[in-house]
Design a protein that fits this description.
By secondary structure, this protein is mostly helical. The protein is built from 21 helices and two strands.
């Protein structure tokens, strides 16, 4: 019965009207992903009025076709220019842009696109597999488990810092600064304002988009101006190579790609975490899962640092659809906007989507897969032209990058305060790069800090101390202790080697 409905849904998506709208959405999502700061959620909100009176399958083919490829093409901007095309593609910058500066933009782009396609297929498969078992899957995590998941992510900070004792210390300090910055704004428990300095702009805390755009883009623009060369430096500027090698890397490290896809899927399923968490946890897992001797390459151009977040970015979308479709509980801010589309086409999220309107749900699965196949195929066709942007001389490229940076920061909330935030964090990012402080731990602490604090308060208020004895919490505590213990062992070994040297 399910197989028959699955095949039937494919034919519905391939109807001329649904397929046409999907292709229009893919083209729109392609360019939205390339432009920093605009965001898939914002574009979804702008496109909602156009689905009024459309057939459900065609409407979701259009919206999901657009949204599901934004992260894919956002990786392209992150790799080529060091500017996050999306807030959820910042982790790709660390190794992807480092590869581009070495003249390996083709390989980085090939790896990102291939891992994105694998992630999209895994995420769509999770949505399909979750149909009969969705309730226990969604209800596994309450606020205590979400808090411990955030703590586990914070514990990965050390693995993003390097193997030398001084690098690890700097990583922990950068992570602590990120946690501090996440506390700016209103206290979620008592409602007090913290570190706002009387500024109305800071009441809601620091927004992720201008922070990330400034933190990563400004240092790269300054570096480009100082060097006076192209992004790829003095690397050979002949025919672009390495795209096929990047695609092969996705299958060479296939199980890493699949594991990071599963991480993104599950984080997408759990409401309230979002793609920012998925990419950094996947990046940390990629760094943690390699032998200690190889971790020093992360942040300097290791292709595994591209594969991990690339896979998680796309798989999270299929995961986020699970609670949205089954319970009407959005798995992300973009899915909250998508709920409006259900109402516009006359559908109600819930059990009916798994029975009465099963064809629409299965059509969503096919849309995610087909849209990413089209987007990756189109990107690969344009890759040679896109990657040659890294060979344009710096003085010609800097004005364009600066414009994209300012527009990306401003359009996040249409607030001049975001531009100031972008400049401040741009200065901080430049100082950290110049004095060799790791930026990834700060971003991870900033992304996870607010989530950890919010769910800790909820857990204590609802369960008291009893939340510490929940089975999943105990498992996550054990994993956190294991991560910290392995870090301490590596720290001592590295310290012993330094003393013996």
């Amino acid at each position: 019965m399910l197989l028959e409905a699955f095949v039937g849904a494919l034919f519905e998506v391939l109807r001329w009207d649904a397929l046409s709208f999907m292709l229009i959405g893919v083209v729109a999502g392609f360019w939205v992903g390339l432009l920093p700061g605009l965001g898939g959620g914002t574009t979804l909100a702008l496109m909602l009025p156009f689905v009024y009176r459309m057939e459900p399958v065609a409407a979701f083919a259009f919206l999901l076709g657009m949204h599901s490829v934004v992260s894919t093409t956002g990786d392209i901007t992150s790799i080529l220019f060091g500017i996050p095309g999306e807030g959820t593609t910042a982790a790709t910058i660390l190794d992807g842009h480092a590869m581009a500066k070495r003249g390996e933009a083709g390989r980085a782009l090939g790896a990102a696109l291939a891992s994105s396609l694998v992630g999209a297929i895994v995420g769509a498969g999770a949505l399909l597999a979750a149909i009969p078992v969705v309730r226990p899957l969604v209800l596994t995590f309450g606020s205590p488990e979400l808090f411990m998941l955030a703590v586990l992510g914070i514990a990965f900070i050390a693995s993003l810092s390097g193997r030398r004792p001084r690098a690890m210390l700097r990583g922990f300090l950068a992570g602590a600064l990120g946690l501090f910055l996440a506390s700016v704004g209103q206290d979620p428990q008592a409602g007090h304002f913290r570190y706002t300095f009387g500024s109305l702009y800071l009441w809601d805390g620091l927004d992720l988009v201008p922070v990330l755009v400034g933190f990563f883009a400004i240092p790269e623009i300054i570096d480009l101006a100082v060097r006076g060369t192209a992004i790829a430096g003095e690397a050979p500027r002949g025919r672009l190579g390495g795209v096929a090698a990047g695609v092969r890397d996705a299958f060479r490290y296939f199980w890493l790609t699949v594991r990071c896809s599963l991480i993104g899927t599950y984080i997408g399923v759990v409401p309230g975490l979002g793609g920012g968490v998925a990419q950094w946890v996947a990046y940390a897992h990629a760094a943690q899962s390699v032998p200690p001797a190889e971790r020093g390459g992360f942040g300097k151009g290791d292709v595994r640092g591209v594969l991990g977040p690339g896979a998680a970015n796309n798989s999270k979308e299929g995961g986020a659809l699970v609670p949205t479709v089954a319970f009407g509980v959005p798995g992300s801010s973009a899915m909250a906007i998508l709920l409006g589309a259900f109402l516009l086409v006359g559908l109600t999220p819930g059990p009916d989507m798994l029975t009465k309107h099963l064809n629409v749900t299965l059509a969503m699965v096919w849309t995610i897969v087909l849209a990413n196949v089209v987007a990756v195929g189109g990107s690969l066709a344009l890759l040679n032209h896109l990657a040659r942007l890294t060979t344009i001389r710096g003085p010609l490229l800097i004005p364009i990058l600066a414009l994209l940076t300012f527009v990306g920061a401003y359009t996040a909330n249409n607030s001049p305060g975001d531009v100031v935030t972008m400049l401040v964090f741009g200065g901080l990012g430049y100082l950290m790069v110049r004095y060799q402080w790791p930026r990834a731990p700060l971003v991870l602490g900033f992304v996870l800090g607010e989530i950890a604090e919010r769910y800790l308060w909820i857990s204590v208020a609802r369960y008291g101390a009893a939340w510490l004895l929940r089975p999943v919490v105990l498992v996550l505590i054990a994993l956190t202790v294991a991560v910290i213990a392995s870090t301490l062992v590596q720290y001592r070994r590295a310290a012993a080697r330094e003393q013996g040297a």
